[in-house]
Amino acid sequence: MKRSRRIYVSAVGLMAAMMAGGAWAQSPDFALYDGGHVASVVYSGKGATPGLAARMLAGDLQKITGQAPVVATRLAACRPDCVVIGDLESPLVKQLAQFHHIDLATLSGAWERYGRVVITTSAHQNILLIYGADRRGMIYGVVDLSREMGVSAWEWWADVAPRRVERLHVSAAPVTSKAPSVTYRGIFLNDEDWGLKPWAAKTYDPQTGNIGPKTYARIYELMWRLKANTLWPAMHDVSTPFYDMKANPKLANDYAIVMGTSHSEALMRNNFGEWNEKRDGAFNIFTNRNRMTAYWQKRVSEVKGFDNLYTVGLRGVHDTPMEGADTQDQARQGLQIALDSERDILSRTLSKPADKIPQTMTLYKEVLDTYQSGFKVPEDITLLWPDDNYGYIRQLPTEAEIQRPGGTGVYYHLSYWGQPHDYLWLATTHPGLIAEEMGKAWSRQSRREWIFNVGDIKPAEFLTQYALDLAFDADGFSTSPREALRRWAATQFDDGSATDIAAILMDYYDLAFSRRPEFLGWNGVEPVTRPQTDGFIGEDGYEAQARLAAYARLTARAEALGATLPVDRQAAYFELVLYPVRSAGNLNKRILSLDLAALYARDGRAGANSYVRDAQAAQAGIDTDTAAYNALENGKWRHMMDARPRDLPVFTPPAWPHYAASDRTGCDLAFSGGRVINAHDFPRLTFVRGVPGDQVIEVYSREAKDTPVTITPIAGISTDTTRLTLDEASRWQSRLGFHWNGQGQSGRMTITCGAQTFNVPVDVVDGPSAPVDAVETERQVTIPAASTASGDWEAIDELGSQGRVLRSRLDLPGHRQPQVVTPLSYSIFTTSAGEADLTVIALPTHPLSPETGLKVGVQVDDGPIQTVDFKTVGRSDTWKRNVLSNTALGQAGKVSLSRGDHAVKIYALDPGVVLDRIELTFPGAPQRYAP
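^ thats the sequence. predicted structure below, dont judge the formating
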């Protein structure tokens, strides 16, 4: 359906520009399309960039209006309405500015800013003039206009088709854009082996047979639309080296893209495809320096006319440690030799001092260790802090490093291949984590360069745009991730569905935060190990069942919403929402169902084999959906989606077992934390007077026959039903929920299953006399960190297992003593007595800098203050466990507790600790998900 789009944009700032005749146009808007004629697009300036921007804008206008605008370089084409684009050096922009008294000096020397103004010429031409302080400023002026017209950044890359309108107007108010928040903002195309490269080679550009200029042109345009300006190109050995195709860098220059290279590739080289050890010898700066410097020199000479951000430093020939350096002293020596050579090459070749040439050193893996050991990096070089590959930034600048002329930045992963496990398939990094970590970087003045590893681009569309939006405009940190997601969904779909889509995707990210789908095998890579029984199974399978139910509900919501969307959004919805949601659910279903089948077969449950069939159906669902993805839009994305990257064991369909029927008959009950050994030895269900709560008992049959069940609760307890039948549809089992209203007496409930009657004891114990932050349940107390507050902590919403976390303030001094700290204080109530394990659970962040630590103090009642240190060393087993589960477990030892009221206190000893919850666990508590 055609619509009229009338958009009014408030001015960011007023320009000293006047209309011919001394006044602004009286019309409150500018007509890009009046229903009959579409505005022309006129461009002016040196090189190919203005023409490319003009043709992108004209293409967008044609998609929206159905009419192809005239694209020209002369103002005569403006009949009578047109958009004129150029930068401050454009002859036409200068001419119009002079004649209409537009002060271009307000943008002179600015970085990537633009102005926009409506003018009317003496020839009665109406002009929407977009003039950039530089080429990219001009581009972003065009991009903003395109966004206002209703064109998504993902109109091509995710099939968000622009919708036709009957008329199209934009505000005539003058606009001056702000400078981008982060100077260099970009993406790294990485691990392209299973998506981007096969798609480019076999589908999009088979004549090239690889990622070449045609593909890069699409990527460059996407970067324009996302306001990214820097690219680290694909560099795996499956890809033709970027500079082997001479059109690639020229095209990057035409698109005004700043080219860089990955953390392991100095001076614009692509070592994977360009360094040949048989021909060139070892990549060893100690023994083969001349060959390496000649290798670097050749490339710098080739690209010196382009806009580059040079990676400097030294690692191995690939993503490996430096060759020939066995000690930190040798690493420092080798790094110094390499750096001196690189800066000499740059200075001589570019004919300017090295400190005037943009350079970056990425302190990735062992390079950070070398830097921390005392290596001095020239002050003009940008230090790029890495995350730990799982979204937690390894270090941020000290007060001295903040003052560096070259500044600092961040290299951050949204996709990763490596230890302890890859996550290359589904993009599941939580946007709340991106906001917390990149917001931390912003607050610590790391603002020179942000590079995001986006893997194959798809399916990380939202995460990529969210991260780059924050880089372009740090005011976005004041908007919650959920609201940012809602606004993004409204742009891709519409306002009516945006809230529901945001809720679906936030639940998707929440579920993956506890364990990414790729990590469900509890195995590792490098070396690849075999999957193990899933940690959600525990002793009773309760958590696995709850997780399966959550994914089932989420998938049902996604499917139901998708069915209501119009045809022109079906492909986009499948790519952006339904495929990742349903595939994550199906991998969980396949793995958890098989483990449940094994657990239930040991119980002798009649329904065990139904879980095997669920697992088979889930794998079939993944295969079907992946084939459907690759067939979308008449095969446009063929070979883009691979549901088994690297063919890792977690993705490999297993052997499908079949379990023999139990040789026992009758029914049994399963309680939280384990199975009943005999019908007379039941755990007691314990409820606390005055504190409503819920508990679950499973009833199941060992025989595949219909079996009636009757439940008789006691006063104060209600159930979802009092009568049901165990049958094939229920898998001959049922989860019975018992809901305690807070009032009642101890007693016995009865559950009758067939001919058997089970008497279940219920204990009601006295509760706290006043409200508390947490009460013991199933022999464990879980205290949400954000249930209280203090001046040393700031709350961060939409993150962590409880939906909200506390972070010790970033401006706190490090290594504080508890005596000077005002603690967080929590009140709890325990129904058990004896020794309990005290655990403080945080997110696995890293110390802000070497000047700070990552410690808190914890105290129960008036006992001693125990220090908990969350800092991990390198790629230790503790760190691996932490990042796979997004938790850091701080063990504070055992505490002796009496039944009743207690106080737990947390002391912020260092900045940047992200506190999730505190747990007190008594012996006999159910075994639950543990990293």
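Residues 7-26 have pLDDT under 50 and may be disordered.
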